[in-house]
Amino acid sequence: MTTVPTDAPRVEVLGVRHHGPGSARSVAAALDELGPDLVVIEGAPELDALVEHAGDPGLVPPVAGLVYAVDAPRRSAFYPLAVFSPEWVALQWAVAHGVDVRFADLPAVHVLADGPTPEEPTEPLEEGAPEPASGTTAVGIAPDRPDAIGMLAEAAGYDDPERWWEDAVEHRSTSSLARFALIREAMAEVRATVSHEDPENLRREAAMRRVVRAALKAGARRIAFVCGAYHAPALQLEDFPPATHDNRLLTGLPRTKVAATWAPWTADRLSVASGYGAGVTSPGWYQHLFVSWQQHDVGDRAGVVPGWLTRVARALRAEELDAAPATVVEAVRLADALAAVRGRPSVGLTELDDATRTVLCEGSDLPLQLVNRTLVIGEELGRVPDGVPMTPLAQDLARLQRSTRLKPSPTATTVVLDLRKPAQRERSLLLHRLALLGVPWGRPADAGRSTGTFKEAWLLEWEPEFAVAIVEAGLYGTTVVDAAEARVTERAREARDLAALGGLVEECLTAELPRALGAVVDTLADRTARQHDTLALLEAVEPLARTRRYGDVRGADTSRVADVLATVVARAAVGLRPACSALDDDAAARMKGAIDGAHRGIALLEDDGLAGPWRGALVAVAADRELHGLVSGRVNRLLLDAGALDPDEASRRLSRRLSVGAVPTAAAAWVEGFLEGEALLLLLDRALLRIVDDWVSGIDETTFEDLLPLLRRTFARFEPAERRQIGTTLRHRGDAVEATADGAPSGVDWDLGRPALLRVAELLGLEVR
Amino acid sequence: MTVTSTDLLRAHAEDQYAAELAALAAADDRPRPPRWRLSPWAVTTYLLGGTLDDGTVITPKYVGARRLMEIAVASLATDRALLLLGVPGTAKTWVSEHLAAAISGSSTLVVQGTAGTPEESLRYGWNYARLLAEGPSRDAMVPSPVMRAMETGALVRVEELTRIPADVQDSLISILSEKSLPIPELDDEIQALQGFNLIATANNRDKGVNDLSSALKRRFNTLVLPLPGTLAEEVDIVQTRVASIGHSLQLPIEVESLSEIERVVTIFRELRSGVTLNQRTTVKSPSATLSTAEAISVMTNGVALAAHFGDGVIRADDVAAGLTGAVVKDPVQDRIVWQEYLETVVKDRPEWTDLYRACRELG
After folding, report:
1. Residue-wise pLDDT tens digits, A527-554
2. Which of A322, A330, A342 faces B70 most closely, judged by CB atoms?
3. Of residues A210 and A69, which shows the higher confidence score?
4. Greatest CA separation found in chain B?
């Protein structure tokens, strides 16, 4: 420990492990022991502005201090704090004791200036950390070199640094301050092995020292400096280099204007798995450790293991898995025995996981994964009081909400938007973009009886969780448009199949994201080249075609979409016949849907370049007798409707399919595919109706009972009026006169129909003779 | 005639590795649970291998994650019974035998589970001649391995637990929870001594045969032994085992031909996972389990062929027959799978031409 005269200013450096509950507890003890008149915490000095909110009961961790460049908010840094973070403990101690708090690090005005451009984000503060979700830079409260305490723990043979801290630090000395002195010495050894110091780190430490100097000058006598253990050796007051040395390091740095705010955070975002570089693997476990330690004395850590396993058992029971209290006892014993076998002084998360898997989960990993999500990582949700400055994305959203006059309200309301009016279209765009960002403020509702595409109905309901979703979305960008585009680009990268990408193309269009559209179409073109599954190709056709058809209306450039669409259709047409063979009922139903969709899409475009090959493919499929009835029947119907199939040939095929030699179930499937859609076909073409009627009456009773559900389903799709008409026609079939030579149905009273016909002719502008 | 352990076709683990166990016991200064021959640490070292301070090399018995063996040993130390689950050939029986040898010094207390295993094999039977002559007494009883283990405070093994009929399985419940075996005929009971415990093995592929009742399940710590994780690990296992079997069969060749083992293991792994090692080609999986144990038997078979009918060097021809037999269990379906694999994967590997030709010749 440093010996200083009592009247001399004193700086105690508390080197911690970020988000380490052991460090947090030691910090609390050390602060009590020292009783400082100033607490300095590692972090951008801009965070000083946030200290006023620290004592607010509305501020519930996990929260993050957020510093961002005002002119380019995408350049930002997050400083997450959990209840077990030493920094949070120090902050709370200072607030409770009325002691001043300063943050000390390289000012964000420099770090965020002239750094990465929004298009090419790099990590300004953090080395070697995985890049977070997107353009935004998530930074730990002290983005260190590889976790220094972790390195020491690993050297001592520990896989959990917290356990090392407890065994190696907590038990060494009664004085917390002496413990931190030991950490500092150990770290000095670690740093002695580093041959080349990163200039960025040197600048940061110079900046920290400058804050300390300023504080001493301002009259502070006892300063506690909470920082990453790695920095501890550089912050010893008696080893300070001359002030001019530090000032030289800190001159001539670029500057920009920054703002700071608190943002609610989640336990999930604290975990390493979320891509947060200084994160921990198991925030939930750390929280449990910290809380258990707070409840028990330092010497008594009996509560940790049974407490954890009881929570595990409760979580398993919540998932409807057996976890009897008796087995929990066994699990506790196994965890203890495992720690003993492994020669560890106390039970860690590894032992607990092993014990849970072996005793409570019958050796299976699956239940353990459930527990992992809820307990090990945790589902805590931070809260931020009102009156705290907002995140850039939230600001942008609030601005948009004002400009579009859409107010968030927790009660559900329905709005109908007319997309032809610019103001209403803005609203639609906002809702579409938010939905893409995972903020489903508005859900699509039924627009009522309108066939036009200019109307949209939304059910609006604001939920408090959206605040977090917006912060998370903030990782993608700082304005709603930017973030939505980044998110869509990411989803395009992750999309599994063409249909999903096709859907994304459409969403880009409805949300008007031209830049993202480019990215999605690129991915789509790339995937199309590699896609062999005809079904996937077919399913991609319709959304692409809609985009192509309506894209111009919305002012998007869809020529690339057209290129991709041409490829997709060509490849789907080539692969259609093979893809239709050997389908079972479910696969056939899906194929039928895909063909229908693709056909609708191609019909929409009225482009012979597409329709030609497509029709050729359909003709080939329709002529094949070996295919599944549903697909074959449907394709025949599509061709018939399109006029590409001779009605005589169609009735020949129907008759062939429904003849005695054919299997009744296959025949029924063919009928289902063929008759789906409008019933007019049957009403107008008596020949077809007769074939169907003969077939139905010819089926023997037992087979008929088997077929009944299928037939019922087929005919139930017709409108009641159409069904009634078919029924009437059939009842009178016996006495009705057969169709006349010109194909017009007989039995029509021409005199009765004459006025109506004349009127129609007049409307159509035909010459009436 | 005295029989030495070298004459035996297969020696018990405790005899085969007697020297290692003795060295471990001598070096072991850690606390031992009651009636354990070795401390948990020494048992783990015995299973996973290592070098002792006095220079004795302990050969690894189990190649795989250290965690699993630690859990197994810790479970036994807590007087909870241990259930080893896994597909065939994941060393369940092997591990249980070595655990018993290391902890109790004897791996001979074993009940082989079959569909016909009676309750007497788990509890006790009667010597009817004495029963009739002397009436019921402890002397007229025929103790089961389980009962003897209880009396001596030793480990007992139950192989293929799920093959035993459910009602017979359940007679283990009171033994595992009360640690006592009532003998109503004598109005007496056997109480287990400290150190008694039970290791059961079961195949989780045919779990449905006689699934454990939940009451019994709760009395076991369940440990799933996985298939070897990497190619190198599996090759290592096959080589060690083939060498030791070859030694006991006195086959005159050494398994120096690592490449042949690697090929066999590669084929097994590829067919098992349904994709080639370079992740480029999908292949169909046959109905056979294709466990590591089968790879070992294919190699042993090949070694025997090479030794007795060949020139002592193991070649593609020697393994081809065994390989085909191991893969093609269903003469129709599996043959198609195997032919497809030969044509699409084996044929395209230039250095595998000999193997391709050998397999094609067999049809």
Report:
1. 777 777 788 888 888 888 887 777 665 6
2. A342
3. A210
4. 76
More confident residue, A672 or A135: A672
What is d(CA B196, CA A128) in angstroms, rounded to the nearest whole number? Answer: 52
**Identity of residue A349:** L
Is the distance from CB of B198 to CB of B176 less than 8 angstroms? yes
Task: Return the top range by mean pLDDT from A32-41, A58-67, A120-129, A664-673.
Answer: A32-41
Residue type at A71 in one-letter notation: D
What gap in Å lies between CA A678 and CA A769, rounded to an integer?
Answer: 32
Separation of alpha carbons A206 and A235, rounded Å: 9
Predicted local confidence at residue A468, as pLDDT? 61
- List the one residue out of A596, A609, A668, A603 whose CA is nearest residue A637: A596
Structure tokens at B290: 């294709």
Strand A100-104 relative to strand A10-16, pairing: unpaired
Q: How far apart are CA A152 and CA A137, in angstroms?
A: 28
Q: What is the pLDDT of residues A448-486, one digit of tens each?
A: 555 556 778 888 877 656 766 776 777 777 788 888 888
Mean per-residue pLDDT over chain A, rounded: 77
Band (A736; pLDDT cuts 50, 70, 90)? very low
pLDDT in tens, B185-209: 899 999 999 999 999 999 877 655 7
Sequence-distant contacts of A546-549: CB under 8 A, at least 24 apart: A546/A506, A546/A601, A546/A604, A547/A505, A547/A506, A547/A509, A548/A605, A549/A604, A549/A605
Chain A environment of B72 (Cβ under 8 Å):
none
Q: Could you write out the three-class secondary structure of A151-172? A: HHHHHCCCCCHHHHHHHHHHCC
How many C-beta atoms surround the C-beta of residue A640 within 10 A?
Answer: 22
C-beta separation of B104 from B155 below 8 A: yes
DSSP label at residue A381: B
Instruction: Kindly list the residues from chain B whose CB atom is less than 8 angstroms away from the CB atom of residue A359.
Output: 80, 221-222
**Strand, helix or coil for residue A415:** strand
Q: Per the CB < 8 Å rule, is A340 touching B40?
A: yes
Q: Is there a contact between A322 and B214 if contact means CB atoms under 8 Å apart?
A: yes
Per the CB < 8 A criterion, the answer to whether B200 and B158 are in contact is yes
ipTM, two decimals: 0.79
Q: Predicted confidence band at A129 (pLDDT cuts at 50, 70, 90)?
A: very low
Mean pLDDT of A223-239: 85
B239 min Cα distance to partner chain A (Å): 29
Chain A positions in Cβ-Cβ contact with residue B42 (cut-off 8 Å): none
What count of other Cβ atoms lies within 10 Å of the Cβ of residue B240?
A: 16
A650 Cα distance to chain centroid:
49
Tokens linked to B192: 């287990």
d(CA B319, CA A716): 64
**Residue A724: CA count within 13 A, CB half-sphere:** 3
Query: CA of B216: which chain A residue's CA is closest?
Result: A362
Instruction: Evaluate if residue B83 carries a pLDDT over 90.
Output: yes
Mean pLDDT, chain B, integer:
86
Quote the CA–CA distance of A595 and A537 in Å, as a whole number. Answer: 10
